[in-house]
Amino acid sequence: MDDTIVALSTPYGESGIGVIRLSGPTSISLAQKVFKGKRDLREVPSHRAVFGHIINPVTDEPIDECLLLIMRAPHSYTGEDTVEFYVHGSPVLEELLIKFLIELGARLALPGEFTKRAFLNGKLDLSRAEAIIDIIQARSEIGLRSSYVQLQGRLSKEIKPIMERLKDLIAEIEAGIDFPEEVDLSYESIEARISDIVEKLNNLLKGAYFTRLYRKGLSCPIVGRPNVGKSSLLNILLGEERAIVTPIPGTTRDTITESITIDGIPVTLIDTAGIRDTQDLVESIGVNRTVSSIESADIVIWVIDAGEPLKEEDFEIERLTRDKKRIVALNKIDLSNRVLYIDDIKDYGPTVEISCRTGEGIDRLKLKIKELLGSLPSPDFVIPINTRHEALIRRCLDRLSIAMEGIRSRLPIDIIAGEVWESYNILGEITGETASIDIVEEIFSRFCVGK
Ligand SMILES: Nc1nc2c(ncn2[C@@H]2O[C@H](COP(=O)(O)OP(=O)(O)O)[C@@H](O)[C@H]2O)c(=O)[nH]1
Ligand SMILES: [Mg+2]
User: Fold this and answer.
1) How far, in Å, from the CA of 66 to the mean position of ligand 2?
2) Nearest C-alpha to atom 7 of ligand 1 is from which residue?
3) How far is the CA of 265 from the centre of ligand 2 (A)?
4) Atom of ligand 1 nearest to the CA of 356
5) Which domains does the chain have, with CATH numbers?
6) Mean pLDDT along residues 415-430
7) What local confidence, expressed as pLDDT, does residue 57 receive?
8) 26 lines ligand 1 (CB under 6 A)
9) pLDDT tens for residues 181-207?
10) Position 22 pLDDT exceeds 80
11) Nearest CA to ligand 1 atom 2
């Protein structure tokens, strides 16, 4: 981190304002070479905007007017000396300024490198740094709130005391090994302490479901045999003609994914290929995708055609979706030659009668989705656990359960200490305390350049 990095922090393209950010030890002296204001930048106080001109560092010729902000270490986002240029949002100008700064010795920042520096400089821990990318990529207000709660350190506040307790336990076990006469540490007392920690971790895991729901939303495939009206339902829920609708069975051969919002929660609707036996290769790939979209679904909408009796293919879908939260949508109730009624399908779970032709029942269907979701707690009361945190907590729990088994079979105490150490290290990857550089790199590579 002894070099100075530069990047465009706003999206590339014409815009009202473009922000170019410099961070690192030579930020201020580099800025001085491309900027001319009333005062020498070295004398400008931190966090005060100054007006001036961008100049060509070789010819001193002014290029455009600009506003500049200096944030001195450690009181900046990265913890380093930082300079931000607010320029007219011209891609030509932005590129030129970045080119000057690179020629003067700055290096183009990698994706997420500013935030990575903030993490490495101890400005925020890993779980808080991760929240920033989730804020940027938030898909709904509720998802934004959940990420903000994480940025405030809500998860770290839970993890740190658990790590402290694991550390204390390790210290005591080790002291017990070194000074067996002085430290009175029984298997029973270690077991009690570990089971207490296990309970706390299991409690944390409860946040994972809601966190995913807030941020990624709900995955909701629309399934059914060919021609029952799945694509029509997707279109009507979206309010646009997104999927191709034809009377020819097997029209939808691939899955189409689109999002709507129900009660603030993003719902990802997936129009699937109808499930049937097919010799057509493309269609059969579509059918396989349908099966996997059912597997990863939160809620399934199973569409049935009211104009025809249930067929073997319907029963196949019934079997595939049986263990899922399922809404049975009886479609085409506008048909005069209708043969299926609610009574015929009521055994399959919550049902709703709809017509994609007339729009009847569509609001009721949305209501059913809402009902299946149940009442959601506010993100302010849910500990934010993303999939990475969830996987780490589960791994930690695995280790602790090995330790517990060891205790029950009275294995040597140093073996148990080893497992507790492992669980401590795994948990530390959440806050980044024990995360390897590879993990850190991987996390920040998901950020955009300039963040
Ligand atoms: N009468 C009637 N026809 C419908 C309704 N919904 C869809 N259809 C027709 O059923 C056929 C198949 O629809 P489509 O959405 O492509 O079915 P998919 O194969 O399940 O995606 C098309 O001809 C639609 O116009 C409905 O509610 N009533
Ligand atoms: Mg279709």
Assistant:
1) 54
2) 229
3) 25
4) 27
5) 5-109 (3.30.1360.120), 141-212+386-444 (1.20.120.430), 217-373 (3.40.50.300)
6) 95
7) 97
8) no
9) 776 778 899 999 999 999 999 999 999
10) yes
11) 332
Whether residue 279 is predicted with pLDDT greater than 90 in this model: the reply is: no
347 Cα to the center of ligand 2, angstroms: 26
| Mean pLDDT rounded to a whole number for the chain | 92
pLDDT digits (tens, 9 = 90+) for 331-355: 999 999 999 999 999 999 999 999 9
116-153 pLDDT, tens digit each = 999 999 999 999 999 999 999 998 899 999 999 999 99
| Cα gap 110→53, rounded to integer Å | 27
Q: Residue 253: CB within 6 Å of ligand 1?
A: no
The closest-lying atom of ligand 1 relative to the alpha carbon of residue 303 is 20
Give me the pLDDT at residue 286, please. Answer: 64
Mean pLDDT for the stretch of residues 347-367: 95
